[in-house]
Amino acid sequence: MPTALKNGNDVKITIETLTVPTMTLPNDLPENSSAAQKRHWEKRIDEISKKEMIFEENMKTMFSIILGQVMDVLKTRIQALDDFIRMNAEGDSLALLASLQNQAQALQEAMRHFYLTSQGKKESCQAYMDHYENGMCVIKHIVGKLPVCTLLVDADLKAIGREYKTATADRSLRDLPLNVKWLWVISLALTEHVSVN
After folding, report:
1. Whole-number Cα distances in Å, 42 to 49, 52, 193
2. How far apart are CA 182 and CA 197, in angstroms?
3. How many other C-beta atoms are found inside a 10 Å radius of the C-beta of residue 166?
4. How many CB atoms lie within 10 A of CB 146?
5. pTM of model > 0.90
């Protein structure tokens, strides 16, 4: 959390739980309360009111911070939502986070379908490629490009004393083990859209 937020812990809890904390008002004073008790009670009411106002301002600030950290493709998708005009006008951080969570879940589901793509026994190569291309298009639609994790490639290349950057630069595959070749070629194809022969 940014240190510039006053009472930032309330914002932290709100973001973690996606629920607005309730500010509990003190019970009404009995009629025979002393002047000191009344003054103390009024101070507590003032503190709670101030805390609520600070919380509302912090949540509006968080709206701008969160939206500023989102990738352009996701930002465009969020801005296209029917509720975005209201969210933006009110600085509704919780609605923004819920929308981002929905987008993340859509991406995760699309990635799961993409990684589980396989050719059926009676499926033609063209039908399989259409299914594969469709999966890539869905993911690109959500995030703009296919996210590629090069950690697997890096680990295998390091095991044989090579680095991803130098292997990518010289594109030499002859001396690489077969599993590393395939991971490397797939990684290149997804990131650079190179044709693989």
Report:
1. 11, 15, 67
2. 12
3. 10
4. 15
5. no
